[in-house]
Amino acid sequence: MKKNYLFLVALLLFSVIGFTGCSDDDDSVDASALLGEWQSTYEYAYETEGGEMYPLEDGPYTDEVWTFYEDGTMYWYDNSDNDGVYCDWSVSGNKLYLTDQEDHVTDEYVIESINGSEMVMSYTERDGDYMLYDRITFRKVE
């Protein structure tokens, strides 16, 4: 009986360690890592509609500059349009929320990776059977 008890305790202990020992599910992003100016370098985008996929972009892309400020605002500048917009920004987990200060529309981005010099973000929009997927790589400028 004592052998069975020790075996069950050992099995329980290994089960607990196995389920909690290593976790790579922590996708939280430190918001301070975004602070500063980021220049787009690459874009991969496509849309799907009616079960068909339509490629949009897959190559170098330097049109956008995103500047994140400590006060929770950011400036999104598009070189191709010579136009920019101010947004409020926040991070929760690995999600970046940008709210346009003029029309108050909030967009959700997934921060796929970020380090001191490179950031990869993706955006997905869905409407019925339509979907837009856009992934942009940025390099930190300052």
For the structure shown, list the relevant keywords:
single chain; 142 residues; mainly beta; eight-stranded antiparallel β-barrel; globular
Put the structure in a nutshell.
With 142 residues, the chain is mainly beta.
Give an account of the 3D structure.
By secondary structure, the chain is mainly β. The chain has one helix spanning 2-20, and strands at residues 36-49, 52-60, 64-68, 73-78, 83-92, 95-100, 106-114, 118-127, 130-140. Strands 1-3-4-5-6-7-8-9 form an eight-stranded antiparallel beta barrel. A hairpin with a 5-residue loop joins strand 6 and strand 7 (106-114). The longest helix is centred in the N-terminal third of the chain and has 19 residues, at 2-20.
Averaged pLDDT, please?
Answer: 86
Q: What is the string of helix and strand elements?
A: HEEEEEEEEE
Roughly what fraction of the amino acids lie in strands? over 45%
Structure classification: mainly beta
- What gap, in angstroms, lies between the N and C termini? 67 Å
C-alpha Rg, in Å? 21 Å
Largest β-sheet summary = 8 strands, antiparallel, barrel
Q: Portion of residues in helices? A: 10-25%
- Count of DSSP helices? 1
Number of DSSP-assigned strands? 9
Low-confidence stretches: 1-25
Principal-axes geometry comes out as: globular
Lateral strand order in the biggest sheet: 1-3-4-5-6-7-8-9
